[in-house]
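Reopening this one. Same input as before:
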Amino acid sequence: MRFKFVERNLGIIPTERLCRIMNVSPRGFRAFRSRSISQSQREDMVLLAHIREQYRLSLGSYGRPRMTEELKELGLNIGHRRVGRLMRQNNISVIRTRKHKVTTDSNHKFNIAPNLLNRNFVADRPNQKWVVDISYSAPRPGQSGVAYVWNALRKEDYRMPIPCCEGI
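Same output, byte for byte:
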């Protein structure tokens, strides 16, 4: 960890000073740089290649548990903690997608009110044009939405909760 910090900041601060700050010897740092990668690092690189391949095949939907099962099916003896560590270190995470839920039924047989304003919200006199908008959400139990009513001339704003109704 200390050697990696020294290596990352080589161009900014002189090596001797970095080694003194991190309390390591310059000779130890040179030995660290000339060392080959360890056996566990080699195994991690092979496992990471398998993880990336399975991640690509699963279209980004496999997390740590399912990825571990897939790797075990391939004959690799690996634990879920190691898979999780490798995925975390390499920013491999599940891509969550939500199913689109249609909330509007346009093919109904009900009467449709005529568009009298035709998006012209400017009024000449008070109480000539009133605009209403209903926002459906569930902010509190027993409440299904909020209605916004405002006068187009005065820009008065009235908010009233809509009580929740069964069967709607």
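So the earlier flakiness isn't reproducible anymore. For the record, The chain is about 40% helix and 15% strand.
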